[in-house]
Amino acid sequence: MFAFSSLSQCLRIAPPDLRARLCQELVEPSVIGLLLKDSFGNYVVQTALAVAESDSALYQYMCNAIRYVVVCVRCFTIALA
Asked: What is the pLDDT of residues 48-70, one digit of tens each?
């Protein structure tokens, strides 16, 4: 929990270039799925989306990565049913 809180704070106060690098690390395919499944990790993803400018390419990239994970989870869940 402490690490997630620290990362969220870093996202809020980091300069824009560092913030962009942190967000890019968060949306790596091997990372984003794990973060979204964890309640504290989900908070970090929400913070990253909140600090990204909604019209920026980074924001769009993050949204696309999240959509991809959600679609994969839906397909996997339906296949198990």
From this structure: 999 988 778 989 999 999 998 88
SS3 call for 59: helix
Contacts of residue 40, defined as CB under 8 A and 6 or more positions apart, other chains included, come to: 1, 4, 5
Tokens representing 65?
Answer: 């990565």
CA 30, 76, 38, 9 torsion-angle sign: positive
The pairs formed by 47-51 with CB atoms below 8 angstroms and a separation of 24 or more are 47/8, 47/11, 47/12, 48/11, 48/22, 48/23, 51/11, 51/12, 51/19
Q: Is the pTM of this model over 0.90?
A: no
